[in-house]
Design goal:
This protein is mostly helical and 61 residues long. Helix content is 66%, strand content 0%.
């Protein structure tokens, strides 16, 4: 990770926070890398489909 943190509107940050909270309630602790990926999606820097494609490629290797 490059240390860059995406700036979000309060509404976008709320969506990310709610997703992270839901994961934690379910017993999953999301790594910071995942939280940053959620921020990028919320900010419109990438789509969910792009993120899934990257994960597919990463784990196919």
């Amino acid at each position: 990770m490059d240390g860059h943190q995406t700036e979000l509107t309060p509404e976008q940050q709320y969506m990310v926070d709610q997703t992270v909270a839901t994961m934690r309630i379910s017993g999953m602790e999301p790594p910071e890398e995942l939280i940053e990926e959620l921020r990028r999606i919320a900010a419109g820097e990438k789509t969910v489909e792009e993120s899934i494609k990257e994960l597919d490629e990463k784990y196919r290797q």
